[in-house]
Design goal:
Layout: E1 2-9, H1 17-38, H2 43-56, E2 76-82, E3 87-94, H3 100-106, E4 114-116, H4 117-126, H5 137-145, E5 155-160, E6 166-172, E7 192-194, E8 198-204, H6 206-212, H7 214-223, H8 228-237, E9 246-252, E10 257-261, E11 266-271, E12 276-278
Helix pairs in contact: 1-2, 2-3, 7-8
Bound molecules: glycine (GLY).
């Protein structure tokens, strides 16, 4: 069993030592809680659980604490993909739900599995997700000041369960101040992808991640026999010509955990039941 989570980027220019410590504490707590959950649950169930814990923490830009868009509203996106069944489901630009990733998970058994905007919100309401404001005072203050203080945040989790199945989930509050209708990478196969060989979750600038099809490329390269490290290296090199801003976490079918970022510093924590590997 292996697990790795990310919590977007830590930007030195916009966060202080206390925030960094708070994020480290939160990441350690959540990765260990999710690992304990993985002992009795599938990889797919666990990635949703881990991402919902990250969504519940206002330190991260997903669920509670999401960024505010240019028209003053919050719209969130999230997806889950089960590497065993190759099913991906997601919600794009959903409004006023506490846990977008749980709505994404509810869509897994459906034929129509990725819903956007009003349809996603209506589906959530029909399935018991009451209206819930994920706005926090700090985000409204930043919005008023037009400061993009934490705009490179997204959360994600990749897990390998004790049956050898891989899964991934990713959730985001977006870039902040984006045009209404803009679509994040998080509920696309560029930002969230898994199969039986590898699972990858991305964070960073959605446009850069979509331009490179980052998660899909890494998974495909590992499927075709490349090592996880080499697949990351080649895929991240391909973002260099346009200075793509991206971080990614992954696990392969042999249980190798890997992460990389194009710019400092991705907030991540990996755990195997004994050792914690954490951003510093
Ligand atoms: N990676 C999140 C976004 O760009 O919306």
């Amino acid at each position: 069993m292996k697990i790795i989570i990310h919590g977007g980027f830590f930007s030195e220019s916009h966060t202080d030592a206390d925030t960094k410590k708070a994020k480290q504490d939160a990441m350690e707590r959540i990765v260990k809680q999710a690992y304990a959950y993985l002992e009795n649950h599938t990889a797919q169930e666990t990635v949703v659980y881990a991402v919902s814990l990250l969504e519940d923490d206002p330190l991260f830009n997903a669920g509670i604490g999401s960024q505010i868009q240019s028209d003053g509203k919050i719209r969130m996106s999230a997806a889950v993909m089960d590497g065993a069944t190759m099913k991906m489901s997601g919600v794009i630009n959903i409004e006023e739900v506490k846990n977008p990733v749980k709505v994404a998970e509810l869509l897994l058994p459906y034929e129509d599995r990725i819903l956007g905007g009003e349809g996603a919100t209506a589906f959530a309401r029909k399935n018991g997700h009451e209206p819930f404001s994920t706005e926090i005072k700090q985000r409204r203050k930043e919005y008023k000041e037009k400061l993009k203080s934490n705009g490179l945040g997204t959360v994600g989790c990749v897990a390998l369960d004790n049956k050898g199945n891989l899964a991934v989930a990713t959730s985001t509050g977006g870039k902040g101040f984006e045009m209404v209708g803009r679509i994040s990478d998080s509920a696309t196969v560029a930002g969230n992808y898994a199969n039986a060989y590898c699972a990858v979750s991305c964070t960073g600038v959605g446009e850069d991640i979509v331009s490179n099809a980052t998660a899909t490329k890494i998974v495909t390269r590992v499927t075709d026999g490349m090592s996880l490290k080499d697949a990351f290296s080649k895929t991240f090199d391909e973002m260099k010509p346009y200075d793509g801003f991206c971080g990614a976490i992954a696990i392969d079918h042999d249980g190798n955990i890997y992460h990389d970022d194009s710019h400092p510093t991705m907030v991540y924590a990996g755990y195997n039941g004994k050792n914690l590997d954490m951003f510093r």
